[in-house]
Amino acid sequence: xxxxxxxxxxxxxxxxxxxxxxxxxxxxxxxxxxxxxxxxxxxxxxxxxxxxxxxxxxxxxxxxxxxxxxxxxxxxxxxxxxxxxxxxxxxxxxxxxxxxxxxxxxxxxxxxxxxxxxxxxxxxxxxxxxxxxxxxxxxxxxxxxxxxxxxxxxxxxxxxxxxxxxxxxxxxxxxxxxxxxxxxxxxxxxxxxxxxxxxxxxxxxxxxxxxxxxxxxxxxxxxxxxxxxxxxxxxxxxxxxxxxxxxxxxxxxxxxxxxxxxxxxxxxxxxxxxxxxxxxxxxxxxxxxxxxxxxxxxxxxxxxxxxxxxxxxxxxxxxxxxxxxxxxxxxxxxxxxxxxxxxxxxxxxxxxxxxxxxxxxxxxxxxxxxxxxxxxxxxxxxxxxxxxxxxxxxxxx
Length: 397
Known about the structure:
The chain has helices spanning 2-14, 16-28, 37-50, 108-124, 148-153, 211-225, 267-288, 307-320, 339-342, 374-396, and strands at 54-58, 62-67, 75-81, 132-138, 162-173, 177-178, 182-183, 187-196, 200-201, 236-244, 251-252, 255-264, 291-298, 304-305, 326-327, 347-355. It is α/β, with parallel strands linked by helices. The strands form 4 sheets. An 8-stranded mixed sheet has the order 1-2-4-3-5-16-6-15. Strands 10-12-8-13 form a 4-stranded antiparallel sheet, with helices on one face. It has a two-stranded antiparallel ribbon with strand order 7-14.
């Protein structure tokens, strides 16, 4: 075991300068979801330099790179995402984004860099395990619906026994890692309420049907009643983020539109909450004589780590790091489309520390950055976990 760990670290350390350069290039040239043409081409070229890895395009920019040793060997997958966010980069660094209002503020440049590094380590050490690996470079993690669905629909998981993924976490110090079994993130549902009334002069409300009054009544009902309807053991968050109605101070408008998110952690909660929202909207709208409609777009299902495989990966983690480097992380109400993969096959999603005392900007912040010493650490972790996973499988067989 010690020899394997040393070999992995040696191959990782050899790549440090190259991987730092790759990450900085990606950070400097971010692209939004489903527009990652330059990013995808750059990464494919880096993968081609490693050796014989079979590349298959998914959508216009996503792709897989397969390390195939034998048709009789089991398969696992390691996933990275590639897209950036529509945020202006406000850091003063040499690798600051050159693309206006586009920035890698969620660490996807880090994810891609780590998987490139792990692919090289695993390719060079392929004689030390009996297995096949699908490296997934996913487009469009940020939009709804996310790019993970394209990989699922293109049957890229059909032969995979387990999938692994990870996310940069600036709240965790560099060279730390954390994971928990069960649900890790929430499903984010983007909703929109539309109400149509009857406009008129503000001095004669009796001749109008005020959609603002009805809309505010609906929103207040949802804010107050939703949290009294469901089991508190299944957390959810209801938020209104945008309201639009009217153009003049002295005119009752024709329409009212509100938009927001509903974040849930169980499918049962999701269905009950959406039904309650729709029923509340219709009841109040009908009472006051307006027409109404609830629209929504489903985000990715919750990330839900397989309990048995999470315990297995935790055992491997303990073999390669000190006890203080493992962090008991908290569950998050944020969204992550890795959950799409886990509806099809077992998976384990981890969080890798990228912060230090100076880098404190949160994810999706215009000044987000990582401590680059976290790159070789993550490469070591992903490489070792996959080799150990295969070796345990072979020992069981």
